[in-house]
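Interim report to the steering committee. The following record documents the input for Gamma carbonic anhydrase family protein (199 residues).
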Amino acid sequence: MRFEHLGAEPRIHPDAVIAPTAVISGDVRIGADCQVLHGAVLTSEGGPLTLGAHVIVMENALVRATSTHAVHIGDHTLVGPMASVSGATIGEEVFLATGTRVFNGARIGARSEVRINAVVHLRTVLPERSVVPIGWVAVGDPALILPAERHEEIWATQQELDFPGYVFGLDRETPDLMTQLTERYARSLARHEDDRRLD
């Protein structure tokens, strides 16, 4: 399914193959010989989302660009089933395994591997040929790559990266943070009310 969102229509190379149950919404450009499988969602919430050539986005993966964080995925990259990429830059020949999560402002260098259920946190930079092991977390710039059980170390770095401020423009210490966050985010997402289905 293809949708016009905020006046932008997806641009899909004629050699790309898009499953009939995939959702492509807004300012999305899909390069030659890409494969977007069933249930995948590629959505531009105001910023551009670009797939290079020969990119595979597998079942039920989510790739989301925001108005402040574009997405670029380089050639010959695989985004695994149930993976999530939000507002990040992914180099060429990168493997994002099943269930990986890549957050806003992250940059993953070429020929890197983010293995099953691993996380690359917001504003984290991985150099070329990095490996994030199964279930581990990469956080910071330069990136620390730590197992999940080292939560206190991850949190110390993650807190400095300021998720609510960086993504939503809200101070973490706001007394009604979740009230303001959800109301602001809901207003932004409500812009889909005027989307137009193209197929």
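The chain has a mean pLDDT of 96. The committee is asked to note this result when reviewing the revised timeline.
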